[in-house]
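So, can you check this record?

>
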Amino acid sequence: MSSPKVLFGFHAVGVRMKTAPKSIIEVYFESTRRDARMRQFIERAKEAGVRLIEADATRIAKLAGSHGHQGVAARVEEIKDTRTLDELLDDLEEAGVASPLLLVLDGVTDPHNLGACLRVADGAGAHAVIAPKDHAVGINATVAKVASGAAETVPYFMVTNLARTLKELKERNVWIIGTSDDAPKTLYQVDLKGPVALVLGAEGDGMRQLTRKTCDELIGIPMMGAVSSLNVSVASGVCLYEALRQRGGQ
């Protein structure tokens, strides 16, 4: 997992200041903004010992590549998690985590959706998010902004062959549960308390056929209205929090 060279927004920059302040090269802040949130942010930055640079909104937007920067952007060094997925699972086993919870995204290419998925994965306590290298978006500044810090905390593995990775997870006794509109069971009819990888497909197309065939079980999310499906980040939240509920909220 690697971080972008630029982070922007209070949450994304704030989490980096909290978790790895020495990796921050400099923080730019909008000098004309003097509200309480900005004052608190600057105080935390000074406490963290990071270099602060006053800038106008135009300069920050150019640095961030977005106007949604909230008056804050940071140039940072990349932080790489050198562990493989296998090593992460080994670490969890050694730590006594008997039932890892994984989120697998097949074909999510929108950075806003990936950011939202990472955020909900962090909130629900998922141990990792997995995606194929050739059908997914990587971590960039937009993903990090939408993720509100979760891009810094949730391991994100992009794998060469997703079907093979799912088979390897099966060998570790991880139950592969895919989501589909035509599934015979609903989310609320399956046991999510054991080692589980929840597989969600891209908006519209859903999971690819090979991914679907690799799943141990297919489930659906009940849709009571006229809309036939949910956005992938919303569906991820529904599924992950049902798993968290079944696990006792821990």
Summary: The mean pLDDT is 91. The longest strand covers residues 24-30. The radius of gyration is 19 Å. Residues 65 and 141 are 8 Å apart (CA to CA).
